[in-house]
Design goal:
There is one protein chain. The protein is built from ten helices and no strands. The chain has a domain of 133 residues. 69% of the residues lie in helices and 0% in strands. It is mostly helical and 192 residues long.
């Protein structure tokens, strides 16, 4: 499922559960190097997906389980389902924004890691990240309210928020993306 499909309390629960595996992925040095290169020089999200699969397989499986509504401890996947689910995951802009992709601002968790000064341990960090996420969402909601009010007052045709957040659409087909992931991850897929 996409992150935007989880609503209300379930959405908060899913984000809280995802923060732990995401923090493990972004704290991996190899993943961080590829993420920095993609942000600075551009490139394909498949490079980051490949790095996640190589360097943090358990964290990726935990994310896939959470997004699938399953218990990470009892989650199993085949190469085919993992490929499909990872492709879905890297095509979800809301989920990628937690890693700092698809936006002009640093990733949400990178901000939390840099700002957090509380006690050690994942539980405290997750509490801080959840509170920071809620604060960020309130700020964004206010910005949308102000810019939409300006649009109504000026009778503009396009929302300012839509105008500044325009992104290029992926031009490759699903098969091309899957083939690229398979090749970059070094996977061998046997025909059925």
């Amino acid at each position: 499922m996409r992150l935007s499909e989880f609503k209300d309390e379930k959405g908060i629960e899913v984000v809280a559960q995802l923060l732990v595996p995401i923090s493990k992925i972004v704290s991996n040095k190899e993943n961080a190097a590829i993420q920095k290169r993609l942000k600075d020089q551009g490139g394909s999200m498949l490079d980051f997906a490949s790095a996640m699969l190589r360097n943090s397989p358990r964290a990726v499986m935990d994310m896939l389980a959470i997004l699938d509504g399953k218990d990470p401890e009892h989650y199993h996947c085949s190469a085919a389902t993992a490929l499909r689910d990872v492709c879905n995951m890297i095509s979800d802009p809301e989920l990628l924004s937690l890693f700092g992709f698809q936006s002009q601002t640093p990733g949400f968790l990178w901000l939390c890691v840099g700002e957090y000064r509380g006690p050690g341990g994942a539980a405290w960090f997750v509490r801080y990240a959840c509170a920071k996420y809620e604060q960020t969402q309130k700020e964004k909601a206010f910005q949308v309210y102000v810019t939409d009010s300006l649009r109504v007052m000026t009778r503009a045709q396009e929302r300012y928020l839509d105008w500044i957040s325009q992104k290029e659409a992926e031009s490759r087909t699903g098969e091309e993306i899957a083939a690229d992931v398979i090749q970059k991850a070094g996977l061998i897929v046997k025909p059925a």
